[in-house]
Automatic annotation (TrEMBL):
PANTHER family: HELIX-TURN-HELIX TRANSCRIPTIONAL REGULATOR, ICLR FAMILY (PTHR30136), HTH-TYPE TRANSCRIPTIONAL REGULATOR RV1719 (PTHR30136:SF35). This is Helix-turn-helix domain-containing protein. GO terms for molecular function: DNA binding; DNA-binding transcription factor activity. Residues 72-262 form the IclR-ED domain. It comes from Rothia kristinae. Keywords: DNA-binding, Transcription, Transcription regulation.
Length: 263
């Protein structure tokens, strides 16, 4: 199992890593053991930092002996600038793409070690792929937008995320070999690096196909800050249709970049 390289020396990088892992864990929270593995920080150190953060309200413990973000983090977050400069414009561009392709379009922005979905729009095709709601925060390896972002991250970050994915792989994938599934994921990440997009069936949800590409807004490391994706039933995303849809996808990504900026 891959674990994240330990943060640099000092307490602040460790706190940042722990809070980032908790943000991705969401309301369900995370176990002490998992936080230590995900952050690469020694378990006793994680326990000490969690106790101190809990004491000041930045972290809370759940009845299931897990840890989650505390309510004070919400107030702090409201005071911070966000990457979304124009939410109405983002939705307009997503809806425009839905009108062109006829399918469900998502826009996601990187959030700590995950992706926050800022909008979802629908096309005219009656079978709609509503696997994610706006506002959801999910791990990068659990969504098509997340895969597009993950494909722009350094190899070490990709390996760490895939290690976490192995541990949390959903029971709904019981009919799919984990080796085969991981090979599909790695192919998608390679496609992002080589082709500029990821596409295919069954990457994140069984019986669902997707096409995603990064929005051209990048951090100093070269990592994409956001991505746009189309989700549909298998028959809607044949290889020929993917190639026919890519020009509109790329144009949309360029337009979205005008409404998304580094915080």
């Amino acid at each position: 199992m891959a674990s994240r390289p330990a943060p640099g020396p000092g307490t602040i990088p460790k706190i940042a890593a722990i809070l980032g892992a908790l943000a991705v864990a969401g309301q369900e929270g995370a176990r002490l053991k998992d936080l230590a593995e995900d952050t690469g920080i020694a378990r006793p150190t994680v326990h000490r930092i969690l106790a101190e953060l809990t004491a000041v309200g930045l972290v809370r413990s759940t009845a299931q002996r897990r840890y989650a973000c505390g309510s004070k983090l919400y107030a702090l977050g409201l005071a911070a600038p966000g990457p979304v400069l124009n939410a109405d414009r983002i939705r307009h561009e997503a809806q425009r793409l839905s009108g062109i392709c006829g399918d469900t379009v998502y826009v996601g922005v990187r959030h700590a070690d995950g992706v926050t979905y800022v909008t979802r729009t629908s096309g005219t095709y009656p079978l709609r792929a509503y696997a994610i709601d706006p506002g959801d925060i999910l791990p990068l390896s659990n969504t098509y937008c997340g895969l597009a972002i993950l494909g722009t991250l350094p190899a070490a970050e990709q390996e760490r995320e895939l290690g976490q994915w192995r541990r949390r792989r959903s029971p709904e994938w019981v009919a799919t070999s984990s080796v085969k599934h991981e090979a599909m994921m790695r192919r998608a990440l390679a496609d992002v690096a080589e082709l500029g997009y990821a596409a295919g069936p069954n990457h994140v949800v069984p019986e669902l196909s997707g096409l995603s590409l990064p929005v051209p807004v990048h951090e100093a490391t070269g990592a994409a800050l956001a991505a746009v994706s189309i989700s549909a039933v298998h028959s809607r995303l044949s290889p020929e249709r993917i190639q026919g849809t890519l020009p509109s996808m790329r144009e949309t990504a360029e337009r979205l970049a005008e409404s998304i900026a580094l915080p």
